[in-house]
Amino acid sequence: MNTPELTGRENIYLNGAILGMGRKEIAQKFDEIVDFAGVEKFIDTPIKRYSSGMNVRLAFAVAAQLEPEILVVDDVLAVGDASFQKKCLGKMGEVAQEGRTVLFVSHNMGMIRKLCPITLLLSRGGIEFIGATEETVNYYTNANWQGTRITDDLSSYVDCQTLDHSGTSEAKINWAEIRNSQGNRTLDIFMNEEFQIYNGIENPLNYALTYAIGIVDLQDYPLFHLWSEYEEIDGENNQDLQN
């Protein structure tokens, strides 16, 4: 934890002392800490003048370089550029390989999967779920979908776009459903599980249509989308979705 009124240099020695390091030992690690944090030009500037990213980088550099038995990392990968994030990942890997403990706190499911073999889900100050990382991520993701899942009647979730051609007709999606890897209709799809999307399109004039289906995460961030490819076989229209 950095003290705003002290300089970067002073904070390194203060935090090192809090971690139980002697002044000589901190001095031996000083250049490595400054280089890792990338704050050489501002090392004698008060921390209160640092950006939030610089502040976190210096704090992580101190904690990582002074060889603690337990390294607690709280979303440090959310700040800094790609180069610093890569250094953080490398340092956490080194700490873990040396037999020390790394406690990584994050909402980044991708990073959690990459770094953690065991994951705890915390809620209201307690442990809600603990297990292998993939199990915990599945539990967390599906729990957050409760109450926001699609319903049996998808009409309110489907945008039915009218396509004017002659001025007297329209084409629209009337229904849609999801089927799991067993081919059963479902509202729940787990991580890494295969699934299929079925839908019914009203196309009275047999137009050569194309349409798309978008998949987003809980924050409405687009994950991927599929679009149809028109194909006519024996006089019948067929739509195959392409990734």
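Second entry:
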Amino acid sequence: MACLVLAALLAAPAAGQTPVSRRFKETVLAPFPQAVRESAVISPDARRVAYVRKTAGGEAAVLDGNEQKTYSKVAELTFSPDGKTLAYAAKRGDQWLVVSSGQEQGPYARVGPPVFSPQGGRLAYVAMLPDETRVVVLDGKPGKPWEMIFEGRLVFSPDGSRLAYGARLTPAAGQTPQWFLVADDHTWGPYEFLGSLTGIHFSPDGKRLAWAALSGKKWHPVVDGKPQGSYDNLGELVFSADGRRIAYAAAEGGKWTAVVDGKPQGPFDAIGEDTLRFSPDGKRLAYAAQSGKSWCVVVDGKPGKKYDGIGQVKFSPDGRTLACSARQGPQALVVTGDREERLFDRIVAGSLVYSAGGRRLAYIARSGHNSLVVADGKRKPRYDRVGYLTFAPDGRRPVYAATRGKEAFTVVDDKEAAHRYESIWMPPGEPLKFTTRTRFHYLAVKSDNIYLVEEELD
């Protein structure tokens, strides 16, 4: 759960802009007392809220203010990607169920978190049987029993037609545990282990599948069931958008390389976690790499300028521009192509955002006790906190939420909304949501209620 909370800071707040009375509509969703906020989840479309509330008989999920059935315990609230369905784990006596749209599945000795397919039409989870074996339950039907299911690694293909996971069989006495990769009705293995950092990845079209497997005390990237090499360690693995290209970070003899379509680039002392990026057209690859005490961004195999650290690496939607956040001594900056922007105390992780056409770039920076948006290299007004940054669909105006003192509000192109709240809530990592070219929405809290707020651009 992500919430733009209100914090009293030591420094005096910056002078505010003149608020504007944008057209807006409030719809109350649910009571939202402090006691339920730790368990609260927001739907991916930012239109619904669910949380766990204690009842006389135990606990109950509350969806948009409507209390569901009471169980002895409720956990793992999960919305489908389209926000239409809520699923969760529920305990009755010493048995566990998975409840989806009010319908119970089970019971089982234990259950894992529900996982929806990207379109939300399918549901999977891990369940433990009375003999302590595990099964993957897909669309309500238990699969083959295994000794262990790879924790947190139920992975649907982008179209939801395929499901992959790792599983372990009980070995014979004195033998090494045997792990397998399971997808659809096919099983690959056995392996000594599967890579948790590398994970399990479908290509964007869902036709290809890749993972990391340990065999003979060496790590092997496996693509479409075929081992691609042998390494001491493996890191991040990514497909290009068209699924034709694949890249991964690999270590051998204490050095790291980025292997692109089977060809190594490097060596380096390290490759930045979660920085391998193909351009949208799949023709270019970028990543952060360390040599000695310095870091640089490598683009198309060519190392760039050295810095003390590299954070987010991001291509523009048209693939023409690459931006990154970098650290230079105790301060941080954003680098776009060969252009360095001004220094700040910190660039907020993951905040780099391009406009839809890729012509404009904005991000969130920290300076002293204040936060501010920087768009096209120009500083915007300072606030206590800033979050949920995006551009309007026409690409002309940055739009975000901010707090000052005890108030939270939205800001469009430096203009603050006159209507104020105690806090603004969105799903983790998500910006304010546009539904049309001029209308956006979010959830907001005031007087122990949570509201769906829809605003119109000026």
